[in-house]
Amino acid sequence: MSSKKLILNSSRNFEIIDITAMINNEIDIKSGIVNVFSKHSTSAIVVNENESGLLKDLELMLSDLVSDKYSWQHDRIDNNAKSHLKSFLLSSSETIPISDRKLDLGTWQSVFFVELDGPRNNRTVDLTFISDLNE
């Protein structure tokens, strides 16, 4: 088992950052799995298609589901309840197979870091690699 970190900066309140190539650059095993984990409760890790219309649809859907029409209790603390609630709907991690020293994704799949409370600097994504026993 080995681990590495990605450090990301976001430039918008809501931003979807394709981190597939960054993860592939960090792979140091021939085959196994990697767990990709965001260390922030106002962000997410998702696997899906990198198509601009779909990515805009995700933002629209989340904005519709977690709207301004409510007075969110958490806003009394730091005024970012919507970001936390959106992260509940997504996931903080994904586990992805590795084959031939790269992510073994489907044809249209990419791995994304989803910023829900930006812009932010120094967002940390942990990568934990577990190699096959035969390696």
Question: What attributes characterize this protein structure?
Answer:
YjbQ family protein, UPF0047_YjbQ-like, 135 residues, YjbQ-like_sf, 3-stranded antiparallel β-sheet
Summarize the structure.
The chain is α+β, with helices and mostly antiparallel strands and 135 residues long.
Describe the structure.
The termini are close together. The chain has one domain (about 1-65, about 80-125): Jelly Rolls (Sandwich). A hairpin with a 2-residue loop joins strand 5 (about 95-100) and strand 6 (about 100-105). The longest helix is centred in the middle third of the chain and has 14 residues, at about 50-65. It is of the alpha+beta class and about 140 residues long. The strands form two sheets. Strands 1-8-3-5-6 form a five-stranded antiparallel β-sheet, covered by helices on one side. A three-stranded antiparallel β-sheet has the order 2-7-4. About 25% of the residues lie in helices and about 35% in strands.
